[in-house]
Amino acid sequence: MSLTTDPTAVLTTSDTTATEPVGAPAFTRIAAGLALVAFPLLFTAGVATSPPQASDSTADYVASLGADPSLTALSAGLLHYSWVAFALGVLATIGLVRGRRGRVVVPVAAILTSFSAIQLSGLLLSDWFTGAVARAMPLEAAATLTEGVWADPWVTTWQLSGQFVGFVGIPLVIAALARAGVVSWWLLAAPVVGFAGFFVPVPGAIVVGMFVSSAPMILVGVRLIRRASARVRREELAAS
């Protein structure tokens, strides 16, 4: 009997098509969604465990990193992996766009902020070196060395490109997704309110503010996880 007349062969082919839609793999969306959900939690924990410093001076900053190596490593590690999670997860937001709106701005925002997050995650390595330098030489010399490194044009560019995601990147992604109709424009209020924590003279205000400013990524992550269902992927395939 030929393949075209074999009822078993026809039944198997039809069943595979119905249960395993072609498109973005469910694992990809779930992994990206979980990464975005983890980002605010890791980021806030990293901020909360940042070694306390007496002032914003370079000397006090260096001294704070050298005073408690374990705390420095914990904070730097949490912050590093928070930005790794963000860099990986934010690229998947491109797949949330369904119509014409947002087809340009969402990919641009996602790629820019992902690159910036990669830059920022790499900068965290300096915390281990700065802490080690603070313990290996006099504080004044360690501060001078640190300032010399920061003044290098390559490091300055690295810092600026990394800081972009912290101050502009998240609102940019939210605005792009709102333009595409994926989330509400009201979510832009979260970064504004969150950054106000820098100016509130209350203990813990900065930690709370950083969580509020990054919390919208949890909602975006949940949207990605929901889009991993076979039904949604079949609908996307049919609409393409």
TrEMBL record:
Transmembrane feature ranges: 30-48, 78-97, 104-125, 160-178, 183-200, 206-225
Keywords in alphabetical order: Membrane, Transmembrane, Transmembrane helix
Entry keyword Transmembrane: yes
Keyword Transmembrane helix: yes
Domain of life: Bacteria
The protein's name: DUF4386 domain-containing protein
